[in-house]
Write a structure and sequence with these properties.
Elements: H1 9-26, H2 37-41, H3 45-76, E1 84-87, H4 88-91, H5 96-99, E2 104-110, E3 119-125, H6 133-151
Antiparallel strand pairs: 1-3, 2-3
């Protein structure tokens, strides 16, 4: 960015201008909340900080959602071909117990990668050998979703 030596006064002036431009408009200053002096001087600082906070909150929520999706996938990977597995949270949701009437439900503690503690999971077998999962799953999912809408 900076050249030397300066053979004509204009070269020195150009380099000083480039340094001032960089320092005031491109270089973030930790003492200014990682804003540029120009952002603070022209009153953009608070808007920039609020936008950064909004982006940070969105990122945290996305990471939490990804974590919960990964845990749910790991719980489901515990299931055999003829059953499904659900977590304690889903099992305890309102109306889920009623939706599980007639199904074989067995609970167990499971170690899941990425989860710091053992997690109680429920293995659910279909209500009967002739029953299809689609009816049971749709009632289970609708009960679980209805419960989440009430809480969230």
């Amino acid at each position: 960015m900076f050249e030397a030596p300066y053979y004509v006064p204009g070269d020195l002036r150009d380099q000083i201008d480039a340094f001032v431009e960089h320092y005031n408009h491109r270089r973030y200053h930790e003492s200014l909340g990682n804003l540029t002096p120009a952002d603070v001087y022209f009153g953009r600082g608070q808007t920039i900080l609020l936008e950064r906070e909004r982006i940070k909150q969105q990122t945290v929520l996305k990471r939490r959602l990804q974590h919960h999706q990964q845990v749910a996938a790991r719980v489901q990977n515990l299931a055999d071909a003829d059953e499904i597995c659900i977590s304690q949270d889903v099992h305890d949701a309102t109306r889920v117990e009623a939706a599980l009437q007639g199904c074989g439900v067995n609970s167990q503690m499971a170690k899941l990668r990425g989860v710091n503690h053992d997690l109680r999971v429920f293995r659910i077998a279909p209500p009967s050998a002739s029953a299809c999962w689609s009816c049971s799953l749709s009632s289970l999912l609708s009960a679980s979703m209805a419960s989440r809408r009430k809480c969230g």
